[in-house]
């Protein structure tokens, strides 16, 4: 499964984990006519409102996700009609071979089969090249220790049967790559050392057909398999140290020899993302930011080590990622153009450009390329991640009709998505002159100069990026008269290496100052009034939501009036001590090492609790392995000890974010009420 929507988009078959996906509901026009499922938990009733649908209606807008096509035209998707992600198979009414196989995936015209029933949902899946096997990733209660299970979708009359590949609740595993014939699977797991991910090959025919694992690489660090030669004698592997330091190697699995393929920059490190072997297996495509700090596609010759830029016509923009189809006849690259995703396709080996149909502007993600069929999704303010397939012409050939088919359909609950407001890309100048790109959302009828209550929404990461995609919560807030600003503060991806590293270690608080300047921009420009702005974020965004009100609390003219911290960090020292060990080394690069406790203390909001002067809402999952729940509890206790009464929400069956519909609805309802009471009109 190929996904080019983010920094980690590679040619490997990495399982997609969506911690904050769509919620679901039934309506007269379902996304798919889903078969009966266990009854869902009762959802909380929304507060009475005269301003249109309640927040539960917005949160239940859904589209099936993670679309993958099998060779026979069968479509696999993840969906959650009962509130939790599960795997579904969508079969055309007539499974005819050829291009027309995928012509009619429409509501009422397909056969839907539910294939999984995990209590805590399906984290992701990966389909073998021949479509005969599926590897499932699933964890318990949000703890992210994903287990791997083999699914035979044809067994039991098409209902499927499951066999464990890795079943150890203390271990996290991830499927990386299928062999060309689908007879084996490469995966990574931290079973030997909690802090290190070693590489394995699972051979399905081994041990009399039961399957068995062989370790192919056992070295310190976070490793993954990206590609292999047709005969499996050479493997491309990567080692991830940080967002600005990732390495590429070729491994000889027979000898264990590693050949360094990393394309390094002047600073000695660079981000290297392996795309895969070229068709002749004599060179390797790699996305690297070693030149000008911008991620571009290069080809490295294995014999001479010569490096050549592959797509110079795209050099103006950073790449989200790149990948090839299984046949090695096409390479696909997606450019990140001010947050908008734009796909490009080229024919190998000459890299001749292939024409694509006109696509609506938004965040376009490439999910899969099978032969000359491109499967992609579109997300923008009015399109909730709909999936399409496009039959690609030969390079230089005219486009033929019908070229593009819609594969998935949205469940809207009767809400007219076409009326949803679109965001505006704006930039404000921060305290030191750095321009900060941001997406500004305002409700229908808004006029600049007539201030309204606003939410400044910070992304996680910190190496993340706000993009102009579909967002249920934002649209609900707009319907209630709120505005939303999403600043891509320094340290965000999508704007080059220099911007990405502007917040590392000792420069951490500069990004916090950017976050405060975002709110001041709203006041200066007449969008909002001081005191009618809320800081809001999850994960690192949760840290920002607390740190910004700490910074603002010392100002002569504070601008924030409330804060919402979701699974955020408040004490850098205890966070680094208690986070999962495999994440500690990665995060020390960003925030500073445990060997520098004085600095960690200086950037910990909990150490400046006296500066918090606005009401707070704190929400966290008890099973969070990334930011342990103790972070939220420290903050809650500190506020209560000084006489404050923060709004608290702790979910016992969640981890780093809220996956289950019932929990998402509870949080969303209480969040909306909190904003209404604290900064609303």
Describe the protein.
The structure is a single chain. The chain has a domain at 428-678: Alpha/Beta hydrolase fold, catalytic domain (Rossmann fold, 3-Layer(aba) Sandwich), CATH 3.40.50.1820. α5 packs across α6 (540-553) and α7 (572-578) runs antiparallel to α8 (581-591). It starts with 54 loop residues before the first helix and ends with a helix. With 681 residues, the protein is of the alpha+beta class. A hairpin with a 5-residue loop joins β1 and β2. The strands form eight sheets. Strands 29-30-32-31-33-34-35-36 form an eight-stranded mixed beta sheet, with helices on both faces. A four-stranded antiparallel beta sheet has the order 1-2-3-4, with no helix packed on it. Strands 5-6-7-8 form a four-stranded antiparallel beta sheet, with no helix packed on it. Helices cover 16% and strands 32% of the residues. It has eleven helices and 36 strands. The longest helix is centred in the C-terminal third of the chain and has 18 residues, at 661-678. Mean pLDDT is 88; it is low at 3-50 and 95-100.
Biggest sheet strand order reads: 29-30-32-31-33-34-35-36
Q: What's the architecture of the domain at 428-678, going by CATH?
A: 3-Layer(aba) Sandwich
Identify low-pLDDT runs: 3-50, 95-100
Beta strand %: 25-35%
Specify the CATH class of the domain at 428-678.
Answer: Alpha Beta
Q: Could you give me the name of the CATH homologous superfamily of the domain at 428-678?
A: Alpha/Beta hydrolase fold, catalytic domain
Number of helices: 11
Tell me about the largest β-sheet: 8 strands, mixed
Average pLDDT taken over every residue: 88
Termini gap: 47 Å
**CATH fold category name of the domain at 428-678:** Rossmann fold
């Amino acid at each position: 499964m190929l996904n080019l929507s983010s920094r980690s988009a590679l040619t490997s078959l990495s399982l997609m984990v969506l911690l904050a996906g769509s919620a679901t509901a039934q309506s007269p026009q379902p996304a798919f006519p889903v078969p009966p499922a266990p009854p869902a938990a009762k959802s909380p009733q929304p507060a009475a409102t005269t301003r249109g649908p309640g927040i539960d209606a917005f949160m239940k807008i859904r589209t099936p996700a993670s679309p993958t096509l099998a060779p026979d035209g069968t479509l696999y998707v993840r969906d959650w009609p009962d509130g939790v992600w599960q795997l579904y198979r969508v079969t055309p009414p007539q499974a005819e071979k050829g291009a027309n196989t995928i012509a009619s995936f429409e509501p009422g015209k397909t056969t839907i089969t539910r294939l999984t029933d995990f209590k805590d949902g399906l984290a992701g899946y990966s389909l073998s090249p021949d479509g005969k096997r599926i590897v499932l990733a699933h964890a318990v209660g949000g703890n992210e220790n994903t287990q791997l299970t083999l699914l035979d979708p044809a067994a039991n009359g098409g209902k499927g049967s499951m066999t464990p590949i890795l079943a150890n609740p203390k271990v996290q595993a991830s499927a990386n790559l299928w062999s060309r014939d689908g007879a084996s699977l490469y995966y990574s797991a931290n079973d030997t050392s909690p802090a290190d991910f070693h590489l394995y090959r699972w051979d399905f025919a081994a041990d009399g057909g039961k399957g068995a694992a062989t370790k192919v690489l056992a070295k310190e660090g976070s490793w993954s398999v990206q590609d292999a030669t047709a005969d499996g004698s050479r493997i491309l592997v990567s080692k991830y140290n940080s967002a600005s330091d990732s390495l590429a190697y070729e491994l000889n699995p027979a000898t264990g020899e590693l050949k360094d393929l990393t394309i390094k920059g002047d600073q000695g490190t660079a981000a290297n993302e392996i795309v895969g072997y070229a068709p002749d297996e004599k060179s390797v495509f790699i996305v690297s930011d070693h030149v000008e700090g911008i991620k571009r596609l290069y080809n490295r010759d294995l014999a001479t080590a010569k490096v050549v830029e592959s797509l110079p016509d795209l050099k103006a923009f950073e790449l989200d990622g790149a990948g090839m189809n299984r046949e090695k006849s096409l390479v696909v690259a997606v450019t990140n153009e001010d947050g908008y995703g734009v796909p490009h396709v080229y024919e190998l080996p000459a890299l001749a450009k292939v024409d694509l149909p006109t696509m609506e502007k938004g965040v376009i993600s490439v999910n899969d390329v099978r032969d000359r069929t491109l499967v992609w999704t579109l997300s923008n303010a009015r399109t909730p991640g709909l999936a399409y397939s496009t039959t690609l012409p030969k390079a230089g050939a005219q486009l033929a009709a019908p070229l593009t088919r819609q594969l998935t359909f949205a469940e809207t609950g009767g809400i007219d998505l076409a009326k949803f407001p679109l965001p505006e890309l704006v930039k404000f100048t921060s305290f030191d002159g750095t321009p900060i790109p941001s997406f500004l959302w305002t409700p229908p009828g808004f006029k600049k100069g007539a201030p309204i209550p606003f939410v400044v929404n910070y992304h996680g990461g910190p190496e993340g990026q706000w993009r102009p995609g579909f967002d249920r919560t934002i649209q609900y807030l707009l319907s209630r008269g709120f505005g939303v600003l999403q600043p891509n503060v320094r340290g965000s991806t999508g704007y080059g290496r220099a911007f990405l590293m502007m917040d590392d270690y000792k420069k951490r608080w500069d990004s916090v100052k950017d976050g405060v300047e975002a709110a001041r921009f709203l006041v200066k420009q007449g969008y909002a009034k001081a005191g009618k702005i809320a800081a809001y974020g999850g994960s690192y965004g949760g840290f920002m939501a607390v740190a910004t009100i700490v910074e603002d609390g010392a100002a002569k003219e504070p601008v924030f009036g409330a804060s919402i911290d979701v699974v955020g960090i408040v004490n850098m020292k205890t966070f680094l001590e208690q986070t999962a060990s495999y994440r500690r080394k990665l995060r020390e690069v960003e925030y500073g090492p445990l060997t520098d406790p004085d600095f960690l203390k200086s950037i910990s909001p909990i150490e400046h609790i006296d500066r918090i002067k606005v009401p707070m809402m704190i929400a966290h999952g008890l099973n969070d392995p990334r930011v342990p729940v103790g972070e939220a509890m420290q903050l809650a206790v500190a506020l209560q000890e000084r006489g404050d009464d923060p709004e608290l929400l702790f979910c016992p069956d969640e981890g780093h974010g809220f996956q289950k519909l019932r929990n998402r609805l509870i949080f969303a309802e209480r969040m909306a009420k909190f904003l209404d009471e604290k900064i609303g009109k």
